[in-house]
């Protein structure tokens, strides 16, 4: 099959639309993870998602819907819990990470979930996106863009100096927790597209590369979004042409962009 | 002469743990007072009280005769005080020097759906000139030196044209040259803006060099015998 023929296949059309929207918008939440140093937290949310998936599989429900629900609950809990107990989000994340993965494996064992179903949670595939998945990704993307446009200066101030933002009267904690919640939902979507193990490709890599190149917030948003789109669509097209697994190809495309950004000398 | 800041029997702490006990202090309009004390003496707690970021246990704090511990005028308080936090690292977020300064005006003339005006930008430009950073306006803050970061922090605090400036350990980690430059800038902004300045520091020599008066804070109380009038 040639690339042009792929464009006529509905599954591929949906995958391409999903890749463009998710790559262009979900990647913007990677900035939240990098700036707030929440790498442990996103890892914990990913494990929380696996627990949700395990519950879904054990109960015979849609594992990805259950995973997204679990991640959404987790992201709502992490921010306020770390504020309340004055604990680093990393510690809270670590606690949930180990706990949730242990419970997930117990559930897999007790419910006799087939290994292939468990494996699908870890790998995901953009080619299995349904029409309702596309609607979900589009709505999430729109919320992400609206949030960044509406609170551009406030988010900029929180990212630059959260303490000063608080003193100036910016509702820093509320905005931070809102962004964390959106990041949780985005991780759920990323599980579907690239799988639980390769979530960083969609969320983190573009933001990390853009942080090295951008000189201000506007540039950071534009470069992250463009790199995100190039990563997902480029990876998808390459996987089709070269007959490779999509999740892994998308990830390697993202890694390549990150490598290039590291090689660009910073002035 | 009117007092810019007045502390009366101020007692503060966290939970049941008292950090500051029965503090009395008057800072006159236009005066530069430094509070010198070792780490853990309660200097930052005092700032948190003045900024109303931490509730007080007893006494009161008056800013230009307004008891801020009893009023809910946080917007007014923010318009009166410019706060320079203890921040010496460049952070990891890309932002230009000009943008960072402009953000200091958030909440005073622009916020949420209201964009910064031409006047806001003009104010930011003027202040950068005053702290000798205008040549670095478009520079990414991550590329600034420690001394430049500290001058930027002061520029940001001044962007709202406050009447009081609170400085939290401004010269820590700075080399001699950067310290001198900072001192000169503090001297000129004080004159330019008719500022009352309260600085906390653990560097006694520096406090004596730049302030009109130095107060020694030790174990949560002012040591009257060590108060130095320069």
Molecular structure report:
The complex is a heterodimer of chains A (267) and B (230). Chain A is mainly alpha-helical. Chain A has one domain (3-263): Orthogonal Bundle (ABC transporter involved in vitamin B12 uptake, BtuC). Chain A has helices spanning 3-6, 10-25, 30-35, 39-59, 63-84, 89-111, 115-123, 131-150, 152-160, 162-168, 172-194, 199-203, 205-213, 217-242, 246-263. Chain A contains 15 helices and no strands. The model of chain A has no long low-confidence stretch (mean pLDDT 86). In chain B, strands 3, 6, 7, 8, 9, 10 and 11 form a 7-stranded mixed sheet that branches. The longest helix of chain B has 18 residues, at 176-193. Chain B has 7 helices and 11 strands. The mean pLDDT of chain B is 88. In chain B, helix 6 (176-193) links the parallel strand 7 and strand 8. Helices cover 31% and strands 27% of the residues of chain B. In chain B, helix 4 packs across helix 5 (146-158) and helix 5 packs parallel to helix 6 (176-193). Chain B is α/β, with parallel strands linked by helices and 230 residues long. Chain B has one domain (3-229): P-loop containing nucleotide triphosphate hydrolases (Rossmann fold). Chain B has helices at residues 43-50, 74-80, 97-102, 118-130, 146-158, 176-193, 204-210; strands at residues 3-14, 17-28, 32-36, 58-63, 66-67, 81-84, 164-168, 196-201, 213-218, 221-222, 228-229. At the A-B interface, helix 9, helix 10 and helix 14 of A face helix 2 of B.
> Which percent range describes the beta-strand content of chain B?
25-35%
Reported by name, the CATH topology of chain B is Rossmann fold
Distance between the termini of chain B: 19 Å
DSSP strand (E) fraction of chain A?
under 5%
Structural class of chain A: mainly alpha
Number of helices of chain A: 15
> Which sequence of SSEs, written as H and E, runs from N to C of chain B?
EEEHEEHEHHHEHEHEEE
In CATH, the topology of chain A is named: ABC transporter involved in vitamin B12 uptake, BtuC
CATH arch. level architecture of chain B: 3-Layer(aba) Sandwich
| Chain pair forming the biggest interface | A-B, 27 and 30 residues
Low-confidence stretches of chain A: none
- State the total count of DSSP E strands of chain B: 11
Cα radius of gyration of chain B in angstroms: 17 Å
Largest sheet of chain A: none
CATH superfamily of chain A: ABC transporter involved in vitamin B12 uptake, BtuC
Span between termini of chain A: 45 Å
Task: Let me know the average pLDDT of chain B.
Answer: 88
Figure out the total of helices of chain B: 7
Mean of residue pLDDT values of chain A: 86
How many strand units of chain A? 0
